[in-house]
Specification:
This protein is α/β, with parallel strands linked by helices and 330 residues long. Helix content is 43%, strand content 17%. The strands form 2 sheets. Strands 2-1-3-4-5-11 form a 6-stranded parallel beta sheet, with helices on both faces. The chain has a 6-stranded mixed beta sheet with strand order 7-6-8-9-10-12, with helices on both faces. Helix 2 packs across helix 3, helix 6 packs across helix 13 and helix 9 runs parallel beside helix 10. The radius of gyration is 24 Å and the shape is elongated.
Length: 330
């Protein structure tokens, strides 16, 4: 038999309005009463349609312009469009906003606080600790996508760049490669720093050399070829910080009559569309962008229903094996 809100209200001794507030995550109840009602609902076996939690609600998607306006950048835009489809299908509204200048940050804060229409905020990409602290003070659920800070209490869905870099390096080592290089971006980015140290740790653990001349920084990803010169002696495999850099590297190697993967293998991160458009297609470590979107909407639903303590979800990246990599042959 289906359990009703009235049965929960009768058990706790409150109105059905109070039960509805607790179950849908709306304000107006004390923490103790909220927990009491939710505990009674769970005890009675009440099932609430989670789609109803976001129906007719409005959400914001905050990110940086470069993630949408730069050519061949599709990581966060893909997450956004997947998330927007999920919201559209559930009767919710998702609006994209850029969150960079102080004016934009101030306008968005006023929008959230004054109109009282926004139910939650999704934030995609890396932002400063100062920005995260500001977001953590807003009176609504915040879900951070593809970033994690251990010191700011927010809800996070992220990948471990350090562990993923270690795994990708070990993949190369386990297939016989001992001369391993890495191409990063010139910009400073915490995920890139984590990947650098993940690769270094794997090399150290397996007593393989770290050669500075094999650790390059690409200055301009938009150039369609590698914007930094290659060393005279090449490693047997290059790990690239993203698929676009990997594509630029492959183009540069091919112009120099260096075959991929027969002469040198290429590995990458992100598993974007670029990896499939390249010839040869790129072996890349990443997740389906729908995984981020599905996890983000589920976490937002959970926090609308039961605010409670912030939650972090670590997604497991997987390796998409393609033609740019082959085991080392002496």
């Amino acid at each position: 038999m289906k359990v009703t809100m009235k049965q929960i209200a009768d058990k706790v001794g409150v109105s059905t309005v109070a039960v509805h507030r607790a179950i849908t995550g709306k304000p107006g109840l004390s923490d103790s009463m909220n927990k009491k009602i939710l505990s009674a609902a769970e005890e009675l076996g009440y099932v609430y349609n989670t789609k109803r939690l976001i129906k007719s609600r409005e959400f914001l998607f905050l990110t940086k312009r470069i993630y949408f306006l730069r050519e061949n950048e599709e990581f966060y835009s893909s997450i956004y469009y997947n998330l927007k489809n999920l919201c559209d299908n559930s009767g919710a509204k998702l609006t994209l906003h850029f969150f960079e200048s102080e004016e934009e940050k101030s306008l968005l804060e006023n929008l959230i606080l004054s109109k009282n229409k926004i139910s939650g905020v999704f934030v995609a990409g890396q932002f400063t600790i100062k920005d995260l602290i500001k977001l953590s003070k807003l009176p609504l659920p915040i879900v951070i996508i593809d970033f994690y800070s251990p010191i700011v209490p927010l809800n996070y869905i992220y990948l471990s760049s350090y562990e993923d870099a270690y795994r990708l390096t070990y993949y190369a080592i386990s297939h016989g490669h001992k001369r391993i290089g890495y191409i990063s971006a010139a910009k400073t980015d915490l995920s890139l720093t984590d990947r650098f140290y993940g690769i270094r740790k794997a090399l150290a653990d397996f007593q393989l050399p770290y050669k500075k001349e094999w650790f390059l920084k690409e200055k301009d990803e938009a150039s369609n070829i590698l914007s930094t010169p290659l060393p005279a002696e090449l490693p047997s495999v290059f790990i690239c910080h993203c698929d676009l850099t990997a594509k630029n590297l492959i183009t540069t190697l091919q112009w120099q009559k260096i075959r991929v993967p027969q002469d040198i293998s290429v590995l990458s991160f992100d598993n974007n569309k670029v990896a499939l458009e390249c010839t040869p297609q790129i072996t890349s470590l990443g997740v389906n962008k729908s995984d981020f979107a599905n996890s983000a909407i589920s976490l937002m639903q959970e926090k609308l229903k039961t605010p409670g303590e912030p939650k972090k979800i670590l997604l497991q990246a997987r390796l998409f094996e393609r033609e740019s990599f082959m085991p080392f042959k002496k």
